[in-house]
Design goal:
Mean pLDDT: 93
Distance between the termini: 54 Å
Number of helices: 12
Low-confidence stretches: none
Helix content: 40-55%
């Protein structure tokens, strides 16, 4: 069996990534802002946790911003996603507002799930975010069901399922890929392969060299890309989404990336070497995207600085909003147990 190669973004004659031609300069700047927003949101969440403002634990995706943003760039209104316990970036890439996310982290009534979901269970059905999931691989069958519903309703939309490398050895992974293939459903499976399922490396847990190879067993495309390169992720995601949207069925997109932090806040991180971590930090996706834009003459250092400062202001305001928001009324503890229509469930803020 041939091991799929790791694809980078295609480059045009002028040295500009071809996928950049699909977007305006304003959109390309917006993707950079989104990556910084994801990074600063998670750094802010980490600081809030250390200050005792967030209880329980959290799973940070710092270092994985290109996969969420690159896939999000291929989506449009009406498309839906399922996420993971490490899903803050997916939420933001699908349009979530950081202040409502922070409110959810802080257990406040203004949070996306009225303070009941916390870090691992944010959902916003109105924007197409069907929810994060604390169960490894739990979003896979949900995404397949969503894709089937889109097909039955005659909608020209797709479902995207984000999952980690640890989920590719779950039974739900194989069942979901098989059913999606049999029915040629409009779903894209996005594996964020950050090299470790908790503390176990993919080299020790997974028989195939590339997780994308597993698509061959279900007779649909499997593509492995450099998950720290925005252009590579966006280009592959656009192709996969267009394939799904045109009725050709699913794609398995594997994004090779790395989480800079441990599995969770309780992870002592003794299974990785300092040299390994530093080597991946040197390939940070945000810095690489900034460099790509600057080398193409699409952004100036001054514009980058202004963008980063603007994000910092938004994050600071979001944290204050969450801190000053009311806690849920204890009398409402049994409310919002059963689902309602997206219109009815839309939280009036």
């Amino acid at each position: 069996m041939t091991t799929p190669s790791v694809q980078g973004g295609a480059v045009g004659a002028e040295g500009v990534p071809r996928v950049f031609e699909r977007f305006s300069v304003e959109q390309l700047h917006g993707f950079l802002r989104q990556m910084h927003l994801i990074r600063q949101f998670e750094e802010g969440a980490e600081q809030a946790y250390m200050r005792g403002l967030v209880h329980g634990t959290m799973h940070l995706s710092i270092g994985q911003e290109a996969s969420a943003t690159g896939v999000g760039a291929a989506l449009r209104e009406g498309d839906v996603i399922t996420s993971t316990h490490r899903g803050h970036g997916h939420c933001i890439a699908k349009g979530a507002d950081p202040k409502f996310m922070f409110a959810e982290f802080f257990g406040k009534d203004t949070g996306y799930c009225r303070g009941r979901g916390g870090s691992m269970h944010i959902a916003d059905v109105a924007s197409g975010n069907l929810g994060a999931n604390g169960i490894v691989g739990g979003g896979l069958p949900i995404a397949v069901g969503a894709a089937l519903a889109l097909r039955q309703q005659g909608k020209p939309n797709v479902a995207v399922c984000f999952f980690g490398d640890g989920a590719n050895n779950e039974g739900a992974f194989h069942e979901s890929l098989n059913m999606a293939a049999v029915w040629k459903l409009p779903v894209v499976f996005v594996c964020e392969n950050n090299q470790y399922g908790m503390s176990t490396s993919t080299e020790r847990s997974t028989a195939v060299r590339r997780i994308a190879q597993r698509a061959q067993a279900y007779d649909f495309p499997g593509v492995t890309v450099d998950g720290n390169e925005f252009a590579a992720v966006a280009e592959a995601a656009i192709e996969a989404v267009e394939r799904a949207r045109s009725g050709q069925g699913p794609t398995l997109l594997e994004c090779l990336t790395y989480r800079h932090r441990g599995h969770s806040k309780s992870d002592r991180n003794r299974y990785r070497t300092k040299e390994e971590i530093e080597s991946w930090i040197a390939r940070d996706p945000i810095g690489r995207y900034e460099q790509a834009l600057q080398s193409c003459g699409l952004i100036t250092p001054e514009q980058v600085s202004a963008l980063v400062d603007d994000v910092a202001r938004e994050i600071a305001e979001a944290v204050e909003y969450a801190k000053n928001s009311p806690a849920p009324d204890a009398a409402s503890v049994t409310d919002f147990v059963y689902t309602r229509s997206p219109k009815e469930a839309a939280h009036v803020r």
